[in-house]
Amino acid sequence: MDPFLSLLHSFSSRLSDSELSSLKFLCRATIGKRKLESVQSGGDLFSILLEQQLIASDKVAFLERLLESIKREDLVSQLKQFVEEGEVSAPDDQPDMHEKGLQKAAIEVICENVGRDWKMLMRKLGISEVKMDRIVAANPFNLHEQLFQSLREWQKWKGKDAKVTDLIKALRACNMNLVADRVEQKLLPLNAGTR
């Protein structure tokens, strides 16, 4: 079962009639009047939004704005938690346990040793400015957390293609050779155990 559809279903069952009519009103600009008249439940509305590709498991901004507009902060926080916990990525898109262990060790070293230049590293890894700005806004005075959350974002985005070798390449491309060396040193004993 799709976890995003389960989430939408739970939202639907928790909407009052007046909240549903508010949502329908807010969607008038994006959904035709005739279609809106057929909407009898939150599920109906969410189905139309899914069909029109206004929402998806990896595209929740529109839904978030709708829920904020009707003052359902409880549903907004549930939606944010869903996104943060990476429920959107399928289990077969995850790196294997060994690679996850290597990533965890590499991320620890990177967070301990990369300072103010962390954005340069994240750009090399392909993380967008918008995502970095969002992470900075969420953790305004915590450099360590900004870097950690950015690396988590990279892991989620890449899924099973997130490789420690890419982290090391990106570090070297940013002339952070000392950090790259420390990552490699930390991984030596972990890799030796698999041979």
Any overview of this molecule?
With 195 residues, this protein is mainly α. The protein has two domains: 82 residues, Death Domain, Fas; 100 residues, Death Domain, Fas. Helix content is 68%, strand content 0%. It contains twelve helices and no strands. It starts with a helix and ends with a helix. About 3% of the residues have low confidence.
List the helices and strands and how they pair.
Layout: H1 3-13, H2 17-26, H3 33-37, H4 42-51, H5 61-69, H6 73-84, H7 97-113, H8 118-124, H9 129-138, H10 143-158, H11 164-173, H12 177-192
Helix pairs in contact: 7-10, 7-12, 9-10, 11-12
**Integer average pLDDT:** 87
Our count of domains comes out at: 2
Query: How can the largest sheet be summarized?
Result: none
Which architecture of the largest domain would the CATH scheme give at its second level?
A: Orthogonal Bundle
Distance between the ends: 38 Å
The topology string of helices and strands comes to HHHHHHHHHHHH
The helix count comes to: 12
| Low confidence ranges | 88-92
Q: Give the DSSP E fraction (strand runs of 2 or more residues).
A: under 5%
